[in-house]
Specification:
This protein has about 60 residues and is an alpha+beta fold. The chain has one domain (about 1-55): Trna Endonuclease, Chain: A, domain 1. It is about 25% helix and about 40% strand. It has one helix and five strands. It has one helix spanning about 1-15; strands at about 20-25, 25-30, 35, 45-50, 50-55. The strands form two sheets. The protein has a three-stranded antiparallel beta sheet with strand order 1-4-5, with helices on one face. A hairpin with a 2-residue loop joins strand 4 (about 45-50) and strand 5.
Length: about 60
């Protein structure tokens, strides 16, 4: 599938630019619930660079 190809390309580009991929996919807690972002079967990458943090939906 195309999204799998783009997912890996974006992830590699982030790493090449100095980002550290921290979560793939991104999971977090809302109150006591553990949530995993998987919108429409699309994968989410979270990354950080210094004090900056981003989440990317591909």
């Amino acid at each position: 599938m195309a999204r799998d190809l783009f997912h890996q390309d974006v992830k590699e580009a982030l790493i090449k630019e100095g980002w550290t991929v921290t979560d793939d996919p991104l999971t977090f807690k809302i109150g006591k619930m553990q949530v995993q972002m998987d919108l429409g079967a699309e994968r989410l990458i979270a990354a950080e660079k210094g004090s900056e943090r981003i989440a990317i939906e591909i």
